[in-house]
Amino acid sequence: MRNVPEQSWTSAGIAAQADANLRTFNPPPNRPALKPGGSSVARAPRVAGELNTSITSQHPADPADPPDPKRQVHRHTVREAWQLAQHGHSSWWGDLCLSLLELPVSVLVNLEEMPTVDIVRSALAQVELSLTRHLFDAVMTSERLPVLQARFRRLVSPIKLSHVCRQRPYLAVTNPKHREALVRLLSSDHPLGVEEGRRQGWDIPRHRRVCRFCRRRWAIEDEVHALLECEDPRLALLRDVDLLSALERQEEPLPGARRMYARMPSWDFLDYLLRTSRLLTTVARFVYLVFELVESAPPLFPASESEWLELAM
């Protein structure tokens, strides 16, 4: 409330003051407001915080408690903000409703209804669903997050924010370099040709981001090729010693690791390794060693289709 005199600290006085403010209000220029901007991941919690504030203001007092002037002020402040929005004036409630509409997955709050605890709680639930849907869609429609997409495909409906955003076991890998290698793999921020080809100063078609080791025309240097499929002796040795043998020898071994590797599709085997907590220390070290080897050799990007066609099949 703005400029509430002491004599108005009664329910009637507060209501009268709110009405007076509404009649005389002229929105100042450059009024700071909750404007859309920044990433949706950052905006959604901000919007949720504003909604939580309005819930606190609206909670009814316990009838056994003495009247709380501050609670009454809060309640009338919410009402005033709603009335200002109803009359087309700037207010934090109107700004909040606008921000909800401009989230990547819009949340609609009826401006014509006086905000209540139930309305605000419903809006909070919708904000959580909005963020969940946006994150899920952003990952699944991306051209460069295949490892995360494999995990998202396993999610069971209805998908909740806690399914999409939560601490993952790979963050508990104790070696920082190995942990970083896993994060780079999951986020597609790695040195493999499929991603390095995006970062060059010229457009490199995906099929010409060829494996720098086996140099086969058909071999795109992506995550599963480098980690699990390439037959180059250097990568094959790392895979045999530092992945498959290590998985069978570790403290909590993976019996039949070689049989699983031979029988499972490459993407399924990689997804299994990354979602099995007891294997992550070994897997992280292996990924780190592969990336280290990859970074020791220059990438292979044939400059033209004719150069690409000259590569062996």
How many helices? The count is 15
Number of domains: 2
Question: Would you count the extended β strands for me?
Answer: 0
Strand content: under 5%
Report the span from N to C terminus.
75 Å
- Tell me the structural class: mainly alpha
Radius of gyration: 29 Å
Describe this structure in words.
Residues 22-75 are annotated as: Disordered. With 313 residues, this protein is an all-alpha fold. The protein has two domains: 6-138, no CATH class; 169-309, no CATH class. The chain is built from 15 helices and no strands. α1 (11-24) packs parallel to α3, α2 packs antiparallel against α5 and α8 (176-186) crosses α14. Mean pLDDT is 83; it is low at 1-38.
Features:
313 residues, mainly alpha, 2 domains, 15 helices, 55% helix, disordered N terminus
Secondary-structure blueprint:
Layout (H helix, E strand, L loop, with lengths): L10 H14 L15 H19 L10 H18 L5 H10 L15 H24 L5 H7 L8 H4 L11 H11 L6 H4 L26 H7 L3 H17 L7 H7 L2 H10 L4 H16 L9 H5 L4
Helix pairs in contact: 1-3, 2-5, 8-14, 11-14
Short description:
By secondary structure, the protein is mainly alpha-helical. It has 15 helices and no strands. The longest helix has 24 residues.
